[in-house]
Amino acid sequence: MIWNTKDILLYFQEKKYIDTAVIPLLPLSFGEDAKQEADQAEFIPLVTALLEKQFKGRMMLLPPYTYFSTESDDQKKNRLNEWTVNLKSQGFTHVFLVTSDSFWRLAEDEMASELIWLPSIPMEHMDGKYKQKMIEDQVSQLLKIVVGKWQKN
Amino acid sequence: MSNQRVSRRQFLNYTLTGVGGFMAAGMLMPMVRFAIDPVLTAEAGGDFISTGTSIDELSDVPTRVDFSYEQVDAWYTSEVTNTAWVYLDESQNVIALNPTCKHLGCTVSWEGRESDPNRFFCPCHNGLYEKSGKNVPGTPPTAPLDMYETRVSDDGILQLGQVVPNTIAK
């Protein structure tokens, strides 16, 4: 499900079946990393959209968690942890964070949720067919991680 | 050379009729073309989308066929890719099932779980469907998988149309 009017109504009807939340994490700045961060903002939503399409009935795809990469480390982590705590109290037992920002890789142990880190792939020179194929390959890996996590509990 | 004389009046009559005829035709032709245009396009394509998969590639085992089309959402045009599971039944009819789970809309896949051969499996809440798309009782789905209208073009390429309720599940 996506965070939109139609799906949120369905969510309230079928709440007991939806126990997984996905949050894309997107950094933002106008420094020297801007280009690379913009790549991520193109790549990550495509990945999470396809992931949601596969697992629509059990997964809520939330709007991206966005932050300036110049914000302090603690602020980024604390605010995100608050999201997670909120979601868990709403009955989302599984919270997946999907990102290409290497900051989270180092902070992984402190996060209260499952971090899925993907290397960002710049797609500005890719044609449609190839782009699609590549996203599908990436997502097929993600599917396994998610199903594995579901089966564990 | 004919020795019949053409009077000035006759000459003007012939030329005016000729030129006038061309002008009338020039105006009417596009109008007629516009008027019958819907009839012509309906024959050419309809709502069927070509999958690029040849019918020779199909067998009695469901295979995944992806097809894309352009969707316009307000001012935003995007290419949408859909999937169908396609196989041939006993009488060689093409069956194309829509993999959207009838429970809450996840995507099912053929033999998606090793413990359930010859069935469609939904990874979200362990829903199962028979090969015909019929939902297995005792699993969350309450209805059989939908089907696509199918058509085969003259050169043997599979075309898929609208999603319709399942007609083969018994």
TrEMBL record, chain A:
Protein name stated in the entry: YpiF family protein
Origin: domain of life: Bacteria
InterPro entries in the cross-refs: DUF2487
UniProtKB/TrEMBL annotation, chain B:
Subcellular location: Membrane
Coiled-coil residues: none
InterPro entries in the cross-refs: Rieske_2Fe-2S (IPR017941), Rieske_2Fe-2S_sf (IPR036922), Rieske_Fe-S_prot (IPR014349), TAT_signal (IPR006311), TM_PetC (IPR057415)
Record GO terms (molecular function): 2 iron, 2 sulfur cluster binding; metal ion binding; monooxygenase activity; oxidoreductase activity, acting on paired donors, with incorporation or reduction of molecular oxygen
Primary location class: membrane
Keywords: 2Fe-2S, Disulfide bond, Electron transport, Iron, Iron-sulfur, Membrane, Metal-binding, Oxidoreductase, Transmembrane, Transmembrane helix, Transport
Keyword Membrane belongs to the record: yes
Annotated Gene Ontology cellular component terms: membrane
Keyword Transit peptide: no
Membrane topology: Single-pass membrane protein
Stored Gene3D superfamilies: Rieske [2Fe-2S] iron-sulphur domain, Single helix bin
Membrane-crossing segments per the record: 12-32
Segments forming domain Rieske: 86-159
Family: Belongs to the Rieske iron-sulfur protein family.
PANTHER family (alphabetical): CYTOCHROME B-C1 COMPLEX SUBUNIT RIESKE, MITOCHONDRIAL
Function comment: Component of the menaquinol:cytochrome c reductase complex. The Rieske protein is a high potential 2Fe-2S protein.
Subunit structure: The main subunits of the menaquinol:cytochrome c complex are a Rieske-type iron-sulfur protein (QcrA), a cytochrome b (QcrB) and a cytochrome c (QcrC).
Protein name: Menaquinol:cytochrome c reductase iron-sulfur subunit
Species per Swiss-Prot/TrEMBL record: Jeotgalibacillus alimentarius
Lineage: Bacteria, Bacillati, Bacillota, Bacilli, Bacillales
